[in-house]
Amino acid sequence: MKPLALISTRKGLFRLNHDKTVEPVGFLGVPVSMVLAAKDRVRWFAALDHGHFGVKLHRSDDYGESWQEIATPAYPKTENKEEGDSLKLIWSLAYAEPDSSDRLWAGTVPGGLFYSDDGGENWQLNQFLWQKKQEQGWFGGGFDEAGIHSICVDPRDSNEVKVAVSCAGVWVTKDKGETWQISAQGMRAAYMPPEKEFEQIIQDPHLMVQCASEPDCLWVQHHNGIFKSTDNAASWQEVKDVAPSVFGFATAVHPTDPNKAWFVPGIKDECRIPVDGKLVVTQTLDGGESFEQLSEGLPQELSYDLVFRHGMDIDSSGEKLLMGSTTGNLWISEDLGESWGCVSNHLPPVYAVKFL
Amino acid sequence: MPKVTFTENLVRHIDCPACEVDANTVAEALQKVFAQYERLGTYILDDQGRLRKHILISVDDNLLNDRIHLSDPVKQHSEIYVLQALSGG
User: Fold this and answer.
1) How far apart, in whole angstroms, are the C-alpha atoms of residue A89 and residue A51?
2) Please, which of A55, A65, A85, A165 could form a disulfide with A75 given CB 3.0 to 4.6 Å?
3) What's the domain range around A228?
């Protein structure tokens, strides 16, 4: 039976079963930076970071029962070997079309977007974006070098794709990657001098999510705030004064109601732990006009859980939320965050959770 | 011929038996091994063909000098060890 969700961790890939049990899938001891899977896709993918031995990509054609190593995106060789780039991390993966498991996008560190049309056997670096990265000097956020962590393929037209970059704002293509436009108008970078605050190219979106049924609506958990767009990323509005904090990494948007979104706040930059040791999820049901702190079932004292940017997900039916933390806790909510049940306290640090 | 031996830590990830290959440099030796074992090279070298940051190579008890081009010479009976560095976690 296919799992309810897959959990990527510092020490391997795990599955969350429908009965809420957790089992190892594979790659024990190896950091799994990202997984791409869906219940209606025949091919699943797991990105590994071996550290000493580099980044690898594995594919399963039997819903996770077995995995085979496939080609890894590689940066173009340069004449001067001392200067060329090399793959540091596969940070995001997305199916590029609704009916194909072979056409794929991969976002990487340093700052690359790769495309495959053969199930990951071969990868091509998107030259347009790569050129922009080199010309504009994209800088790192979270890692030493820039990275692409969010890929939103428009459900209305898969030629339209949005990516979010730490740190280079949001980029949009309408011709499947041939050309791209920066699209971070309205984002504000509190970490830059005042005259540069609204410069689009230095924005640090931590994660961008798009509403499946109303794709013009997107949410971003940014380094210093929460932003939303209701015009297909043409402009962004900052949502301020969200208690207990607007700092965080993860966000999720309801698949059929773009006004419903969730965030996991923490003390900003220098600390990155829950405010007052209390882990809460902040929820808006009215497009950011108001927020509520959800805490039932979550630790309310001495909590040091940090939820990474890919550490929260909402299922396609819009009924369940799943959240994993750096201290190996995994929680599920079956009432959209009103209450949470702890599934495990003993996982390795959680990098990403993914409902099937 | 020079002999190339890989760290046992690699075995659980990929096939990498010790090999004897005709070569004059470390680069030549590794390329001949990688020609036999597809993908092994990506575990040892980065996208530019440089030695990965946390991999060590020793040639007859001397650590590799040229980590970029791997041009260190090898002799007829050299022992080349490809090792996992203690750095890198």
Assistant:
1) 10
2) A85
3) 184-310
